[in-house]
């Protein structure tokens, strides 16, 4: 089996593109233009999800006051669930040759849903849930996996770095949209026009992003490659990586959803409370790129293990961050390691894929369990916190999940070493 997998490594798969070179199958200019285009697409789709803490705070205190924090967190977690769990649909469509149509369709659904959110009325939970939870989540599911897979097909030697740059778009989008939304929905324009202004920005960025994106020709049929089609789905290190991603994601989004409420409960200044998510996304931006740069040199799985373990340790530190300096440091450090664990998860999965022709399916299947834990994680933590917001319970649960995931990934490294 190890010999079959060695023959089928993605780096050895040839894409029949005229004039290809070793590093860039479609040429360097098209590769980096596609990075820029997909960067814009993810910045304006995944980015607003990274700003959900703004909505969580606003809905809990002003807009959906008849509902608990746990009820409201279902909106954000449903977005994540659909984005990730239905990513297998986007991946299969990509493998079938419908990359462009899939991403354009997802962009239209996402933009339409964002505009519909601006029409939601106070205390009408179903209106917010349908537009933000269901609609935007469906749009995301058709954007995220195809754009990630597209990048992997444009690069041979710098996949982790290219992926790191791509996923750095989410924290940048989180910075931009958290500032815009906090400034607008809490002032004269209000919720409706704050959301509409964001939707207009998203429309413009989507248009430019599609113009910059180049789709490679479809790879040769999987049946033409002499490898078991389902080999990755029965490969123990791959399955353990899925388990690691599932457990990590149960706790990963806790600060993203709840940091503004945490700051408010600890009497931090309103200015810092509003900018806490933006500060976290500053750390996230660098956390998407720097670890991925080293991953190309030291191995994605090695850097992934370190980042997940440190993410768990920083999570525990939130217990002592009920003051200005501590909160700022926590937001920067947690943002850095939180995003690095997400950006490195995909290169680890890609390294375990049996064939480049099946990359979309392999990525989609790997993201599905992460989507399930993203759905149930924030509401579970909301229930653990309870109506009185007992912060140490939620912090402990989230940090233990991350620490456990790093131990599982250590087992993956050991398993891969034995196979090789």
TrEMBL record:
Keywords: Membrane, Transmembrane, Transmembrane helix. It is found in: Membrane. Pfam families: MFS_1. Its main location: membrane. Residues 237-420 form the Major facilitator superfamily (MFS) profile domain. The keyword Transmembrane applies. It comes from the Eukaryota. GO terms for molecular function: transmembrane transporter activity. The keyword Nucleotidyltransferase does not apply. The chain crosses the membrane at residues 31-52, 72-91, 98-117, 129-153, 160-181, 193-215, 235-256, 268-287, 299-319, 325-353, 365-385, 391-412. Gene3D superfamilies: MFS general substrate transporter like domains. One of its GO terms (cellular component) is membrane. It is a multi-pass membrane protein. PANTHER family: MFS-TYPE TRANSPORTER DBAD-RELATED, MONOCARBOXYLATE TRANSPORTER. Belongs to the major facilitator superfamily. Monocarboxylate porter (TC 2.A.1.13) family. This is Major facilitator superfamily (MFS) profile domain-containing protein. It comes from Gymnopilus dilepis.
């Amino acid at each position: 089996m190890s010999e079959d997998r060695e023959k089928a490594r993605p780096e050895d798969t040839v894409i029949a593109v005229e004039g290809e070179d070793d590093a860039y199958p479609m040429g360097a200019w098209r590769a980096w233009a596609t990075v820029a285009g997909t960067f814009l697409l993810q910045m304006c789709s995944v980015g607003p999800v990274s700003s959900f803490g703004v909505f969580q705070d606003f809905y809990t205190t002003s807009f959906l006051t008849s509902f608990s924090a746990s009820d409201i967190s279902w909106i954000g977690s449903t977005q994540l669930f659909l984005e990730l769990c239905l990513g297998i649909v986007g991946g299969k469509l990509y493998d079938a040759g419908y990359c462009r149509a899939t991403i354009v369709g997802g962009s239209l659904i996402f933009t339409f849903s964002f505009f519909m959110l601006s029409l939601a009325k106070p205390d009408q939970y179903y209106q917010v849930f349908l537009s933000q939870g269901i609609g935007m989540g469906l749009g995301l599911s058709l954007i995220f996996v195809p754009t990630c897979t597209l990048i992997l097909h444009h690069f041979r030697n710098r996949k982790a770095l290219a992926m790191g740059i791509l996923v750095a778009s989410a924290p940048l989008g989180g910075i931009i949209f958290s500032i815009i939304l906090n400034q607008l929905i809490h002032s004269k324009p209000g919720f409706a026009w704050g959301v509409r202004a964001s939707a207009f920005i998203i429309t413009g960025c989507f248009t430019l992003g599609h113009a910059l994106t180049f789709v490679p020709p479809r790879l040769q049929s999987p049946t033409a490659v002499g490898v078991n089609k389902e080999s990755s789905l029965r490969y123990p290190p791959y399955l353990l990586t899925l388990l690691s991603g599932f457990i990590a994601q149960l706790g990963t989004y806790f600060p993203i959803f709840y940091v503004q409420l945490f700051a408010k409960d600890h009497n931090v200044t309103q200015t810092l409370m509003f900018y806490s998510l933006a500060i976290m996304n500053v750390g996230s931006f660098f956390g998407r790129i720097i670890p991925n740069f080293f991953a190309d040199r030291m191995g994605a799985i090695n850097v992934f293990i370190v980042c997940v373990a440190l993410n768990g340790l920083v999570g525990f530190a939130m217990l002592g961050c009920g003051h200005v300096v501590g909160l700022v440091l926590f937001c920067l450090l947690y943002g850095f390691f939180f995003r690095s664990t997400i950006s490195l998860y995909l290169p680890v999965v890609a390294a375990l894929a049996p064939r480049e022709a099946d990359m979309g399916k392999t990525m989609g299947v790997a993201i599905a369990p992460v989507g399930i834990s993203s759905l149930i994680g924030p509401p579970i933590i909301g229930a653990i916190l309870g109506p009185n917001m007992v912060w140490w319970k939620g912090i402990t649960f989230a940090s233990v999940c991350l620490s456990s995931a790093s131990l599982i990934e250590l087992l993956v490294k050991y398993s891969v070493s034995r196979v090789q």
